[in-house]
């Protein structure tokens, strides 16, 4: 269990681009031997791919207009005071 | 783009309110989308995204021009979203119907694509499910997952946006990924 825990840590370091050359070797060697970790690693990568597959949505119509209408008017006065 | 933004901010700081319009236009989709991903609901997303732009305007004098405006804006939007989540009544649903649209939820409002209706349906179902799982993550993990994987900020940028140490960003992104892995592994 603890061995897995250490390797899972390495997987996350890998995903953050923080893995050293040595750690990379340790991880890839372990992945070849350990089916549970292989599965875990695959699931992590797949999770990221799934999150990234979600579509983009745009702001509703008149969004900018509504913001501009809601702005307080004070700013102009401040200019005069300055 | 950052150059135009800097110019407009200077104008706004001098009291030219109309210069703010371009800033809102430039960032509206990003900020709205961020709020939507944080909140999982179009009404709240619109509400909070608007509020974020208004807050930024009101507090523009406290914005340090040596920093990135977009990071500052994202921070305001993230904090407002988290506040809203905390104040929320427990009975909020992701696929709340859009008022007056007779059973349509926000997935039906998303841009149409080239897929066949069957593919569209399947993809919408999956998207809905993924979105639901993201929006059920605790807000402090959710914000980082969204910023990292949907808005593609680096860990360093996320640390600046949220004003938390990079070590904390890493801890949270690890936990967020593990939580989502458990939720999405059967998909």
How would you describe the overall organization of this protein?
- Chain B: Belongs to the sigma-70 factor family. ECF subfamily.
- Chain B: This is RNA polymerase sigma factor.
- Chain B: Keywords: DNA-binding, Sigma factor, Transcription, Transcription regulation.
- Chain B: InterPro entries: RNA_pol_sigma-70-like, RNA_pol_sigma-70_dom, RNA_pol_sigma-W_bacilli, RNA_pol_sigma70_ECF_CS, RNA_pol_sigma70_r2, RNA_pol_sigma70_r4_t2, RNA_pol_sigma_r2, RNA_pol_sigma_r3/r4-like.
- Chain B: It comes from Compostibacillus humi.
- The complex is a heterodimer of chains A (about 80) and B (about 190).
- Chain A is mostly helical and about 80 residues long.
- Chain A is about 75% helix and about 0% strand.
- Chain B is an all-alpha fold and about 190 residues long.
- Helices cover about 65% and strands about 0% of the residues of chain B.
- Chain B has eight helices and no strands.
- In chain B, α2 packs across α3, α6 crosses α8 and α7 crosses α8.
- The radius of gyration of chain B is 18 Å and the shape is globular.
- The chains are: A mainly alpha (about 80), B mainly alpha (about 190).
- Chains A and B meet through α1, α3, α4 and α5 of A and α2, α3, α5, α6 and α8 of B.
Mean pLDDT of chain A: 88
| Total count of strands of chain B | 0
Biggest interface: A-B, 36 and 47 residues
Spatial extent as radius of gyration of chain A? 25 Å
Q: Main beta sheet of chain B, described?
A: none
Distance between the termini of chain A: 67 Å
N- to C-terminal distance of chain B: 39 Å
Q: What are the secondary-structure elements of chain B, in order, as H or E?
A: HHHHHHHH
Instruction: Specify the number of helices of chain B.
Output: 8
Radius of gyration of chain B: 18 Å
Most strands sheet of chain A = none
Category by helix and strand content of chain A: mainly alpha
Uncertain segments of chain A: none
């Amino acid at each position: 269990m603890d061995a897995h825990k250490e390797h899972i840590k390495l997987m996350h370091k890998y995903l953050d681009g923080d893995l050293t050359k040595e750690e990379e070797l340790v991880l890839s060697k372990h992945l070849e031997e350990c089916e549970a970790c292989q599965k875990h690693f695959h699931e992590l990568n797949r999770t990221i791919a799934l999150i990234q597959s979600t579509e983009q949505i745009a702001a509703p119509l008149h969004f900018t207009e509504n913001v501009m209408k809601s702005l307080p008017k004070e700013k102009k006065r401040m200019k005069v005071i300055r | 783009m950052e150059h135009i933004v800097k110019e407009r901010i200077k104008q706004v700081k001098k009291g030219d309110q109309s210069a703010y319009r371009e800033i809102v236009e430039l960032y509206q989709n990003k900020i709205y989308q961020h709020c939507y991903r944080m909140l999982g609901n179009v009404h709240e997303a619109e509400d909070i995204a608007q509020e974020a732009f208004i807050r930024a305007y009101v507090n523009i004098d406290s914005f340090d021009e040596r920093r990135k405006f977009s990071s500052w804006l994202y921070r305001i939007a993230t904090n407002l979203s988290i506040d809203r989540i905390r104040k929320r009544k427990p009975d909020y649903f992701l696929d709340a119907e859009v008022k007056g649209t007779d059973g349509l939820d926000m997935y039906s409002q998303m841009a149409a694509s080239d897929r066949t209706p069957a593919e569209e349906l399947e993809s919408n179902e999956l998207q809905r499910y993924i979105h639901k799982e993201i929006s059920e993550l605790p807000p402090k993990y959710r914000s980082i997952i969204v910023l990292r994987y949907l808005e593609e900020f680096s860990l360093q940028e996320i640390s600046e946006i949220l004003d938390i140490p990079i070590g904390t960003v890493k801890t949270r992104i690890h936990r967020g990924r593990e939580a989502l892995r458990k939720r999405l592994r059967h998909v």
